[in-house]
Amino acid sequence: MTTRGKIILTILLLGVVGFGVYRWWDKIAPKGKGEHISLNVDEIKKAVQAARETPADVPLLAGTNAATLVDRSAIPTVTGVSDYAKANKDGKMVIEFPINVWPGWAPIIMANGGLEPNDQSVFFKKHQFYVRLSIVDDPVKARDLFASGQSHVLWGTLDMMALFAPELVKDSRTVPVICQQVDFSGGGDGIVARGEIRSINDLRSFGGKRKKVVLAQNSPSHYLIMSLLIDAGIDPNDIDFKWAADAPSAAKIFVQDPSYDAFVGWSPDIYNVTEKLKGTRLVVTTGTANHLIADVWAVRNDFYHDHPEIVSGLVQGIFEGIEMVRKNPATAAQALATAFKLPVEDCKNMVGKDGGVAEGDAHLTN
Fold it and tell me: Which one of 102, 175, 235, 261 has the lowest number of neighbouring Cβ atoms within 10 Å?
């Protein structure tokens, strides 16, 4: 064997040993115990093989957070409540409108001509104000930007608004006023599982062993799985939930760690993972559990009372954007790809050939 070959072989062996030590460290050196623990060689071989079968090139959303777990917690208290921002561009107000990576926002991206404030925007040409769109996947972060006045708008689903409202209504300025529903999720949210899990009922625990599921807490994913579990008569306490900061992070964690039985997320992750990761499948989507998740946006109460004409302009502009998406789905897909830095083909599937009427991941409102 050449010197180069020996070096490569040594690196591979060290990698396998390092993975085994890392994966079973609690068994090799458990806290408070000094006795020798024997390792199960077969289990190590299976884990290493599973790691090898996990492709490194499964395309996943970038997201706004690192793919790490977070502690389970109640909804954090709102801090730093303040008046809303009053930024201007050429004497016209700039509306800060955070969104998440989701096809239901295609209409506002189309109407705005992208993410940045610009003179070609429908909102400027017809309503004389600018809109800046920013991508904020973390629901709690979006809420805190809203409460602190750094954003005028809060994206969310109806269930999220219900979760956040008790904290936001403590200050009259930040009471969320829901102005418009932009879509129903029509297949874009779902649960991806591996192994023998083929339906919601397969998430039941047997013999005291709970299924391990990763998702973003206080998100549409959280509401989706809780609703489905309750409908199936499964106690959510029988699931070993692990929490990610946002849905894209949950997908990444599932791909990287084969010990997870399932993750809850949305497109294009749920499709990319099942297409490219062997042994995984979509258990359920909002294509069948339709009308369960409704995407909406709200403005701050103080902003609503100070600028009703801008709120009206936002609603009208988004409805105009919906018509733009339906008339030209290919252009809408390209706009999504540019805004979210995703492959155009993924975005075409997300938008649908008819622009969110009967196809695509989100059924746009009419």
Answer: 235
